[in-house]
């Protein structure tokens, strides 16, 4: 008699691979209560007869007595004894007396069948719809008598032998057939249409003895979702009828001797899993665009991706890939964002063996090269500057070293160059003067040592310039010819993405030091006109010509050795939002003309040699002590140092049209306006910054940008062909 095993494993696993809790259901059975209320027991609502007994995973063990009271339940329709341990008990013929059974599951229960037992039991179970006995020892030929109502037949790993009767394939209601892992079972498929053709959805036959080829009759299996024929000794070409399996989602054909071209399998529109390993397939994948960005993929990038001969777009950015970038075989590759991974090694092979030339520089159609935020090492290939079609050049946030030896050719179309956050040394390449379309140049946080490249002022479209944390001297003539920073769109005031004027959009970001923070903007706008030359060794005075850059939003010249005074021409920067001149040697007074700069939200003039009174009114009434600290001779309300009374504290001129009433009313009105505007702006600004920093790139935003990215890049591609 079987008993409860309290020491058995607390978990068992069913055929689908889902973990189920194992517990002793029979321990809760109480004879003083109606058995219909017992755990695992279900009764008919009308007659009160037991019709279902579910004891799966119940820690039952020991011999199963053929006189068990179980066989008294003549009305039983469902019986599940799976995942127990009946210690090799012989299946009793009395199971066949439960003639009302529609569902019988004895899988992995350590039963065994005696000679002909299986066939005798099935003979009487004429109402069966589901039969699961996988993992049991049947050790006989395949029975001939199955219920015509069968929808599920699972006989996996049961030591069946002999030839499978064709009539199994003609069970008209069959939906699931699993005969896997019976190597002594021989299968011949019917050559005519199966009666189960329209109903069969799951067919699992790995490691069975298969004779012949896949027949034409497979073309009628139009409902099939799952087909597993691994290790079946199949040979020859894939037949055309197989392509009629329009609903197939999982196709396992590995470890056979099949032939044909690999591209055929892309005809399956619903395919989710395809396994073709260890066969004789040939040919090549004609894949042109491959989009897998913004997922959670990890491991190394599969080598077959680099071997795709027609690949033009490869989006693997924002994942968790690691390892090295291999050599691409495609000569038509033009868009390869790989940023935000953990890729390592050289780009993509050592420059010393010259194979890098054929790997990347031979990609003449390449428009976007984005390998930012990885762990790439080595030097920047010199040939990259000769790629005349390149628009985006982003190798930022890596471990690249050495000099920037790249020579940028005359007539190139580069819009964005981002090499910041590396270990680059030496001088800024003079050939950058050839980049007439350049809008973003970020070489910050490297180890460059150079006099400031004053020829950069000849770049007419430059909108963002960042050379932070390098070494060099600052020529005051820099600001005279930065034409793109001198224009404000007074008509629309609508932000335009960098490069959008040429019908091109690329989803990239730029780290901008603004308002006291290093913020990463996912898509730089032309309204974000930025100069960041902080943390260098620039000397000399700030040229008054900087006042010509009226579109400037952020100016950061902090942590240098600048001297002289703050130029009054800064008053013309009417949209300036952030001004940082801290940690220099600037002297003199703060120009009173700066007070009307109503867009100014962040001001840092700390640690200089400024003297005199801090201007009053407008934004200057909102700046705190930290904006001015380290200037011992500076006085004003923010520093709690008296300027000698109200008359000694200059105040900004009241704008035209404002009623100049009493001093008390004017001051109160100014403070009310300032506090209201500052409060609203602060709340909205902090909310936006919180959303940006906490979500980084929200899913809806990423999807929108990527869709727009693909559409516009495709349009750009057509535009290039037209010209």
UniProtKB/TrEMBL annotation:
<dbReference type="InterPro" id="IPR003591">
    <property type="entry name" value="Leu-rich_rpt_typical-subtyp"/>
</dbReference>
<dbReference type="GO" id="GO:0005886">
    <property type="term" value="C:plasma membrane"/>
</dbReference>
<dbReference type="Pfam" id="PF13855">
    <property type="entry name" value="LRR_8"/>
</dbReference>
<dbReference type="InterPro" id="IPR032675">
    <property type="entry name" value="LRR_dom_sf"/>
</dbReference>
<keyword id="KW-0677">Repeat</keyword>
<protein>
    <recommendedName>
        <fullName>Leucine-rich repeat-containing N-terminal plant-type domain-containing protein</fullName>
    </recommendedName>
</protein>
<dbReference type="Pfam" id="PF00560">
    <property type="entry name" value="LRR_1"/>
</dbReference>
<dbReference type="InterPro" id="IPR013210">
    <property type="entry name" value="LRR_N_plant-typ"/>
</dbReference>
<dbReference type="InterPro" id="IPR001611">
    <property type="entry name" value="Leu-rich_rpt"/>
</dbReference>
<keyword id="KW-0325">Glycoprotein</keyword>
<keyword id="KW-0433">Leucine-rich repeat</keyword>
<comment type="similarity">
    <text>Belongs to the RLP family.</text>
</comment>
<dbReference type="Pfam" id="PF08263">
    <property type="entry name" value="LRRNT_2"/>
</dbReference>
<feature type="transmembrane region" description="Helical">
    <location>
        <begin position="675"/>
        <end position="693"/>
    </location>
</feature>
<keyword id="KW-1133">Transmembrane helix</keyword>
<keyword id="KW-0732">Signal</keyword>
<keyword id="KW-0472">Membrane</keyword>
<keyword id="KW-0675">Receptor</keyword>
<keyword id="KW-0812">Transmembrane</keyword>
<keyword id="KW-1003">Cell membrane</keyword>
<feature type="domain" description="Leucine-rich repeat-containing N-terminal plant-type">
    <location>
        <begin position="25"/>
        <end position="44"/>
    </location>
</feature>
<dbReference type="GO" id="GO:0050832">
    <property type="term" value="P:defense response to fungus"/>
</dbReference>
């Amino acid at each position: 008699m079987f008993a409860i095993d309290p020491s058995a494993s607390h978990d068992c696993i069913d055929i689908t691979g889902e973990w189920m809790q194992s517990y002793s259901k029979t321990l809760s059975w109480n004879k003083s209560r109606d058995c219909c209320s017992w755990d695992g027991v279900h009764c008919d609502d009308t007659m009160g007869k037991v019709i279902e007994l579910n004891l799966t995973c119940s820690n039952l063990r020991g011999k199963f007595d053929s006189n068990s009271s179980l066989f008294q339940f003549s009305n039983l329709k469902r019986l599940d004894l799976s995942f127990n341990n009946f210690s090799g008990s012989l299946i009793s013929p009395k199971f066949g007396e439960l003639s009302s059974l529609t569902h019988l599951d004895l899988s992995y229960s350590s039963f065994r069948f005696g000679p002909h037992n299986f066939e005798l039991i099935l003979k009487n179970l004429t109402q069966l719809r589901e039969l699961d006995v996988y993992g049991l020892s049947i050790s006989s030929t395949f029975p001939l008598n199955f219920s015509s109502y069968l929808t599920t037949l699972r006989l996996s790993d049961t030591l069946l032998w002999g030839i499978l009767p064709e009539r199994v394939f003609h069970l008209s209601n069959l939906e699931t057939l699993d005969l896997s892992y019976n190597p002594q079972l021989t299968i011949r498929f019917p050559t005519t249409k199966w009666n189960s053709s329209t109903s069969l959805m799951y067919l699992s036959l790995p490691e069975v003895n298969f004779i012949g080829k896949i027949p034409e009759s497979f073309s009628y299996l139009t409902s099939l979702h799952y087909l597993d024929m691994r290790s079946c000794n199949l040979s020859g070409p894939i037949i055309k009828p197989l392509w009629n399996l329009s609903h197939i989602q999982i196709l396992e054909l590995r470890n056979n001797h099949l032939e044909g071209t690999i591209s055929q399998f892309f005809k399956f529109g619903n395919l989710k899993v395809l396994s073709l390993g260890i066969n004789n397939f040939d040919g090549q994948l004609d894949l042109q665009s491959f989009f897998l960005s913004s997922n959670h993929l990890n491991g190394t990038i599969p080598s077959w991706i680099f071997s795709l001969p027609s690949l033009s777009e490869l989006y693997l950015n924002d994942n968790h890939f690691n390892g090295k970038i291999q050599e691409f075989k495609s000569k038509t590759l033009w868009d390869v964002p790989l940023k935000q991974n953990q890729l390592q090694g050289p780009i993509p092979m050592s420059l010393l063996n010259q194979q890098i030339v054929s790997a990347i520089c031979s990609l003449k159609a390449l428009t976007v090269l984005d390998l930012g935020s990885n762990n790439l090492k080595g030097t920047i290939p010199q040939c990259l500057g000769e790629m005349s079609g390149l628009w985006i050049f982003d190798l930022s946030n890596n471990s690249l070293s050495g000099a920037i030896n790249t020579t940028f050719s005359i007539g190139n179309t580069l819009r964005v160059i981002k090499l910041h956050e590396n270990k680059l040394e030496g001088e800024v390449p003079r050939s950058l003067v050839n980049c007439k379309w350049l809008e973003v140049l970020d070489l910050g946080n490297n180890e460059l040592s150079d006099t400031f490249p004053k020829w950069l002022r000849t770049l007419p479209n430059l909108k963002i310039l960042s050379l932070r944390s390098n070494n060099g001297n600052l020529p005051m003539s820099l600001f005279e010819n930065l034409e793109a920073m001198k224009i404000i769109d007074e008509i629309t005031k609508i932000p335009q993405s960098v490069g959008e004027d040429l019908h091109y959009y690329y989803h990239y970001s730029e780290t901008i030091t603004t308002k006291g923070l290093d913020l990463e903007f996912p898509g730089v706008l032309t309204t974000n006109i930025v100069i960041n030359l902080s943390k260098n060794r620039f000397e000399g005075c700030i040229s008054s010509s900087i006042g010509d850059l009226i579109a400037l939003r952020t100016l950061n010249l902090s942590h240098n050795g600048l001297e002289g005074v703050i130029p009054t021409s800064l008053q013309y920067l009417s949209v300036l939002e952030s001004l940082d001149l801290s940690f220099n040697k600037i002297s003199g007074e703060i120009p009173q003309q700066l007070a009307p700069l109503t867009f100014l939200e962040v001001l840092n003039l700390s640690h200089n040699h400024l003297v005199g009174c801090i201007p009053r009114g407008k934004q200057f009434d909102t700046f705190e002590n930290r904006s001015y600290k380290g200037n011992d001779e500076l006085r004003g309300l923010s520093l709690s140092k008296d300027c000698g009374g109200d008359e000694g504290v200059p105040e900004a001129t009241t704008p035209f049209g404002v009623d100049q009433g009493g001093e008390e009313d004017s001051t109160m009105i100014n403070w009310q306006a300032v506090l209201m505007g500052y409060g609203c702006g602060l709340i909205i600004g902090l909310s936006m910054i919180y959303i940006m920093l906490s979500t980084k790139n929200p899913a809806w935003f990423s999807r929108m940008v990527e869709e727009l990215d693909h559409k516009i890049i495709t349009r750009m591609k057509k535009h290039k062909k037209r010209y």
